[in-house]
């Protein structure tokens, strides 16, 4: 008798839907077995994991019954005996290897019988135990970062943050087994199973290995990335609403990479896997996130004379990027670097020859200690890099600096609040205040540690280029709703900063982009020439009608508008703005009270906001403990301005606050998402 209910309750594993015992390390669990006539002192237990268990690799433990628990090693203490059964409390050390164990018992009284197998159990990390590397003293944080199956991911851009719900579903169905098989499919395991298993007691090792396994690069991992804007042959990254479907599909296909992921999908799946194994984990969104490919803490962007953003640099600045933070101690670096650690499963740059990233101590990032393991320079650049904008002439290969900025990268770094559906800003945990002396000192310290201070860099702008002052300033103002289906109205504002008149030739373009700001389709272009009187400000309205942009729009609903201003006798001025358009709203109503095992009706209401018919309408619904799997409903075509109502039934099977996630797609709108909290 594995005492499944009591053990699960004591070990915070009740949410798993398994018939197998699942417990956490560094804490006792009870087993009762019968058929023992000999004295209890003569029993020896064997707990072993992996294909070749050994004491040396810490994957096998042999222990008898002792009078007290040992904190350092596996031990067993007698709880009670009756005429034909015995109850034993088994304790695993807080640094035990995690995974699936086989438990056997052997009698040592005279006859050397072979051990009798009692069965298997799964051992996980234990954030509730003070001896564990992942110990998290705050219980509410343990609830959120290990036990919560619903999350909110922030996206959009720095001017316009939006969010959507995600079903992590770490306790559902077969997810634990899929997470364990993920470990057995890693490159490290394939190369040397015994060594890999012996390191599975270490959260920093597993975090790094899993950051590689969640992407398909190198190891046939879970998700194949695609940032092209064309997602034929798979599902568009924005169409997923939870990790469960992705992990199940990976297993069902015989572990072939699932198509397709982008950063938040990689991060959400890694959150599921790490929470499942017991490592406290959350998703983090960084707005205006730098991808510094050449480790010079600088990102270079190139524009041609017409103002087109050229896709020619390895560096880029993403509207947003999502990664993970996991909570554990860093015995390799020292206590001041323990706590939140950055892990990133999005395949951006190789680390140690494969696409993996982290763990990078968040404290090390804040203090500019970029020489510490792992991948600190890359993460430091994501939130701190300087930005250089260049005019590039493809005919001659000549580049001219337009301007440089040190304050635009790494803004509004966001995560979901503990126990609430709100955004919390953690920017100050990554860096000192932008523009402060301390922040610049840390940046210099990081440059020095990377050897950038003393090295001449022929690609860097000269001090003269950096110091040059423009004669005019410009900005794009939004003059109307930013919504898919509506015309896009902007105002280009140009101001003469000098006391003599200036003639300006302006080349303007608008491109649809993916959220990484990679240009996909040209939508619009125009050019104007203006004379600005001394200190004059002029406004130029711009209108891009919906029919002109809707076919070019990617599923990210993002448009980059650029104006390159050639000032006669002065330096060029680049004005740009990244625009994220909102999808129309969709509404969920729960009709009546939600009770366990009772049917309740749900209605989803959507109104077509445009004067075209919507075809291929599909509604996707998921929610843990509310329905099993994913419900897909085909919705009839919707005429212009028509309102649709779709009803379906739920039979909730657990009490408490649950989240229902809805995703509506059609030929004109992709992935209109919302969620609703349902109190069962």
Characterise this structure.
By secondary structure, the protein is of the alpha+beta class. It has four domains: 4-124, Immunoglobulin-like; 149-450, Transglutaminase-like (Coagulation Factor XIII, Chain A, domain 2, Alpha-Beta Complex); 469-580, Immunoglobulin-like (Sandwich); 586-679, Immunoglobulin-like. 17% of the residues lie in helices and 39% in strands. The chain contains 14 helices and 36 strands. The longest helix is centred in the middle third of the chain and has 15 residues, at 263-277.
Furnish the topology, listing elements before pairings.
Blueprint: H1 4-10, E1 21-24, E2 28-34, E3 43-49, E4 60-66, E5 75-81, E6 85-91, E7 99-107, E8 116-124, H2 139-147, E9 150-157, E10 160-167, H3 175-183, H4 187-191, H5 193-198, H6 203-213, E11 223-225, H7 243-252, E12 258-261, H8 263-277, E13 281-291, E14 298-303, E15 309-310, E16 316-328, E17 339-343, E18 360-361, H9 362-367, H10 376-384, E19 386-393, E20 398-405, E21 411-416, E22 423-425, H11 427-430, H12 437-449, H13 463-467, E23 472-478, E24 488-496, E25 502-513, E26 519-532, E27 537-544, H14 546-549, E28 558-567, E29 573-580, E30 586-591, E31 600-607, E32 617-622, E33 631-635, E34 643-650, E35 657-665, E36 672-679
Parallel strand pairs: 1-8, 4-5, 11-12, 14-19
Antiparallel strand pairs: 2-6, 3-4, 3-7, 5-6, 7-8, 9-10, 13-16, 13-21, 14-15, 16-17, 17-18, 19-20, 21-22, 23-24, 24-27, 25-26, 25-28, 28-29, 30-31, 31-34, 32-33, 32-35, 35-36
Helix pairs in contact: 7-8
Beta-strand share of residues? 35-45%
Coarse morphology: globular
| CATH architecture descriptor name of the largest domain | Alpha-Beta Complex
The poorly predicted ranges are none
Largest sheet: 8 strands, mixed
Q: What strand order characterises the main sheet?
A: 1-8-7-3-4-5-6-2
Radius of gyration: 29 Å
Helix content: 10-25%
What structural class is derived from the secondary structure elements? alpha+beta
Q: Which CATH class of the largest domain?
A: Alpha Beta
Q: What is the CATH topology of the largest domain? A: Coagulation Factor XIII, Chain A, domain 2
Cα end-to-end separation: 32 Å
**Number of distinct helices:** 14
Number-wise, the strands total 36
């Amino acid at each position: 008798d594995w005492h499944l209910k009591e053990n699960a309750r004591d070990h915070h594993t009740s949410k798993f839907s398994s018939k197998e015992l699942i417990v956490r390390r560094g804490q006792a669990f009870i087993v009762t077995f019968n058929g023992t006539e000999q004295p209890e002192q003569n029993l020896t237990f064997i707990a072993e994991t992996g294909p070749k268990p050994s004491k040396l690799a810490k994957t096998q433990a042999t222990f008898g019954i002792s009078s007290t628990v040992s904190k350092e090693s596996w031990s067993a203490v007698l709880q009670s005996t009756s005429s034909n059964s015995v109850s034993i409390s088994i304790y695993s050390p807080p640094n035990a290897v995690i995974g699936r164990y086989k438990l056997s018992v052997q009698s040592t009284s005279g006859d050397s019988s072979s051990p009798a197998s009692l069965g298997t159990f799964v051992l996980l990390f234990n954030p509730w135990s003070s001896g564990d590397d992942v110990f998290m003293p705050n219980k509410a944080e343990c609830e959120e970062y290990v036990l919560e199956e619903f999350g909110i991911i922030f996206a959009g851009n720095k001017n316009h943050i939006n969010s959507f719900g995600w079903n992590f579903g770490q306790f559902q169905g077969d997810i634990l087994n899929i997470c364990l098989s993920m470990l057995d499919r890693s490159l490290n395991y394939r190369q040397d199973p015994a060594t890999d298993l012996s390191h599975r007691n270490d959260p920093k090792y597993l975090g790094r290995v899993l950051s590689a396994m969640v992407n398909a690069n190198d190891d046939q991992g879970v998700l194949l990335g695609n940032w092209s804007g064309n997602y034929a042959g798979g599902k568009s990254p924005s169409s997923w609403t939870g990790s469960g479907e992705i992990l199940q599909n990976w297993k069902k296909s015989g572990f072939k990479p699932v198509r397709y992921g982008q950063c938040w999908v990689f991060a959400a799946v890694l959150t599921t896997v790490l929470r499942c194994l017991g490592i406290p984990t959350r998703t983090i969104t960084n707005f205006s996130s730098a991808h510094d490919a050449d480790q010079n803490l600088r990102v270079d962007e190139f524009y041609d004379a017409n103002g087109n953003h050229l896709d020619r640099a390895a560096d880029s600045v993403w509207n947003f990027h999502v990664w993970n933070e996991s909570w554990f101690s860093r015995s390799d670096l020292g206590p001041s670097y323990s706590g939140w650690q950055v892990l990133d499963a999005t395949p951006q740059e190789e680390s140690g020859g494969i696409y993996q990233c982290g763990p990078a101590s968040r404290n090390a990032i804040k203090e500019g200690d970029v020489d510490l393991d792992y991948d600190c320079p890359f993460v430091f650049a994501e939130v701190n890099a300087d930005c250089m904008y260049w005019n590039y002439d493809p005919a001659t290969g000549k580049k001219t600096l337009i301007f440089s900025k040190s304050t635009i990268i790494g803004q509004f770094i966001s995560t979901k609040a503990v126990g609430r559906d709100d955004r919390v800003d953690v920017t100050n945990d990554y860096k000192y205040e932008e523009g402060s002396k301390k922040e610049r000192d840390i940046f210099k310290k990081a440059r020095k540690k990377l050897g950038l201070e003393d090295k001449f860099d022929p690609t860097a702008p000269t001090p003269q280029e950096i110091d040059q002052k423009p004669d005019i300033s410009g900005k794009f103002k939004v003059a109307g709703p930013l919504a898919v289906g509506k015309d896009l109205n902007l105002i280009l504002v140009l101001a003469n900063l000098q006391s003599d008149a200036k003639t300006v030739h302006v080349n303007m373009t608008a491109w649809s982009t993916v959220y990484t700001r990679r240009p996909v389709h040209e939508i619009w272009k125009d050019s104007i020439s203006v004379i600005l009187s001394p200190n004059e400000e002029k406004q130029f309205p711009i209108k891009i009608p919906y029919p002109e942009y809707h076919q070019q729009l990617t599923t990210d609903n993002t448009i980059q508008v650029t104006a390159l201003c050639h000032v006669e006798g002065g330096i060029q001025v680049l004005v740009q703005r990244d625009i994220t358009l909102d999808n129309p709203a969709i509404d969920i109503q729960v009709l009546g009270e939600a009770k366990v095992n009772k049917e309740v009706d749900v209605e989803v209401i959507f109104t077509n906001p445009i004067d075209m018919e919507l075809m291929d309408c599909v509604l996707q619904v998921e929610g843990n403990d509310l329905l099993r799997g994913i419900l897909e409903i085909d919705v009839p075509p919707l005429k212009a301005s028509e309102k649709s109502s779709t009803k379906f039934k739920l039979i909730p099977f657990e009490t408490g606050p649950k989240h229902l996630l809805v995703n509506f797609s059609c030929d004109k709108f992709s992935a209109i998402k919302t969620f609703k909290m349902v109190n069962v």
